[in-house]
Amino acid sequence: MKSHIRLTAHILLLGYTMLLSYWMIWGFGRIKQPEYSYNLVPFSTMASYFPIRDMGSLINIVGNIAVFVPFGVLIPLAFRVGFRKMLGFFLAGLFLLEMIQLISRRGSLDVDDFMLNSIGVTLGYGLLGVVRKWRSG
Prior knowledge:
Layout: H1 3-25, E1 38-39, H2 44-47, H3 55-66, H4 69-79, H5 83-104, E2 109-110, H6 111-136
Parallel strand pairs: 1-2
Helix pairs in contact: 1-4, 3-6, 4-5, 4-6, 5-6
């Protein structure tokens, strides 16, 4: 891969990571909560959103997927890694951010977020594969 593509991917990855970190810790009016918030039971948070009854539920589900799609594109471009390593890097970074949310009490550590975010990064990786196949002819 051309070095300018890798450099651009590194820059975009760093910038998007910083933006998303801001959103997850301080954005959208997040304030320090009086208690720690966490969910370690798979599907318990998602169950409250299905069936989708309002715009808030839809935004939560789609948002938790969509905002992580860029990582599925940028991590492989920046580091020339396959799906498993890309997912490993992603989950390590996501775990760090989720722990910061928990410890700072400016969000919650939620296993359902991990699942939805992983769907997003997987969709991004798949999209990158489609684009690569299309470009190669």
